[in-house]
Amino acid sequence: MGVAFTHPIEQVLHHAFRDPALLQQALTHSSYVNENRDSVLTDNERLEYLGDAVLDFMVAEWLFKQYPDLTEGQMTNLRARLVREDTLARVAQRIHLGEHLLLGKGEAESGGRARPHNLCAAFEALVGAVYLDAGLDVVRMVFKPLLQPELDQALRDESARDPKSLLQEWVQGRYHVTPAYETVSEEGPDHAKTFTVQVLVNNRVLGIGTGASKQAAAQQAAAAALQRLQAEHP
Question: Which residues constitute the domain of residue 153?
Answer without folding.
Answer: 8-160
